[in-house]
Design a protein that fits this description.
single chain, alpha/beta, two-stranded antiparallel sheet, 10 helices
Length: about 325
């Protein structure tokens, strides 16, 4: 029943966007030709400041392990095969100068599964994406002609994690439970964290750690997260990226009066701010870490809309 309502909401959103009149377009703060958005905030100065946050010499992966059973936004799926080319019947690779053998991988997958970077060509409105780029101009079936995630420079800077579950007084927030500017400010104040320009802001809701294994169907159908108003507030802070320990960052189903995934439009299309989904931030909080050095070097597959990622937190 929930899946049907969810699909209907997506359909209504899609149809409504297609029927709407084209909006006036505002070019990026980095100029009409810019294609990397908030990655312009990466700088030697911010990198050096972030490096000062490494106090213990520890590192933590922010990506989760994924596989064929990982829940994903429909119709996404993943299939992996391990093969031993030209080694049928126990043949060895004598051409190597020794009796060699090896395994190789064949992967057929949608990229938007598990921990991922949403590029600026992922979600738009009225046929337009970041910096007024028209879908007819950039959306080739062989890969985006602009805004591909391969062109994003390494995202390096100060990462902060805000414990929205603790702010709400729970270990795991509920499906559809949303938070906006008031809750974000309260969480930051409680943790003594200042949000600054160029930050990578990550939210902990407890959703993935609390629900992915115990109830994978619900985990992939709904989630707590950001409200439309909260996305507008975050955009005003001019961060490098916004992410969460959920598969879509925003509340699903959305709060009353909110548009489904419209925070994606606000952050990606309107402001060029990257989204980071299914980030493994719970362990950081359990280590008492609120701020850290964030480092991401994504796969550079030309023209991709998203990227499977495993950023590293250094602290």
């Amino acid at each position: 029943m929930f899946v049907s309502r969810f699909a209907a909401a997506i359909l209504a959103l899609t149809c409504g966007a297609g029927a709407a009149l084209a909006q006036d377009c505002n070019h990026s703060q980095w100029g009409a030709e810019d294609t990397i958005g908030s990655a312009n905030l990466v700088s030697p100065e911010r990198t050096l400041e972030a490096a000062k946050l490494i106090k213990q010499g520890k590192s933590l992966p922010l990506g989760i392990t994924i596989g064929p059973d990982t829940p994903a936004f429909p119709p996404r799926s993943l299939s992996l095969q391990v093969v031993q080319p030209n080694q049928q019947g126990g043949q060895k690779l004598s051409g190597f100068g020794y009796e060699g053998n090896y395994n190789d991988d064949l992967l057929q997958t949608w990229i938007g599964i598990g921990s991922q970077l949403d590029g600026l060509g992922h979600l738009g409105e009225n046929g337009h994406y970041y910096n007024c780029l028209d879908e007819k101009e950039i959306s080739a079936i062989t890969g985006l002609t602009k805004l591909g995630t391969h062109a994003v420079p390494p995202l390096v800077g100060r990462g902060v994690v805000l414990d929205m579950a603790a702010q709400a007084g729970v270990e795991v927030m509920e499906a559809g439970q949303s938070f906006g500017s008031a809750e974000i400010k309260a969480a930051a104040e409680a943790q003594g964290v200042e949000l600054r320009e160029g930050d990578i802001i990550l939210f902990h809701t407890g959703w993935t750690e609390g629900m992915m294994e115990s109830n994978p169907a619900l985990w992939g159908q709904a989630e707590p997260g950001l409200s439309n108003e909260g996305a507008v507030y975050l955009a005003s802070l001019n961060p490098m990226a916004v992410g969460a320990d959920t598969w879509g960052v925003e509340a699903v189903p959305p709060a009353e009066g909110d548009k489904l995934f419209y925070g994606h439009v606000t952050l990606l299309k309107e402001h060029g701010i990257y989204l980071l989904e299914t980030m493994n931030v719970g362990p950081l909080l359990r280590e008492g870490v609120n701020e850290f050095m964030f480092v991401l070097g994504q796969p550079r597959i030309k023209g991709t809309v998203q990227a499977m990622i495993n950023p590293v937190a250094l602290y």
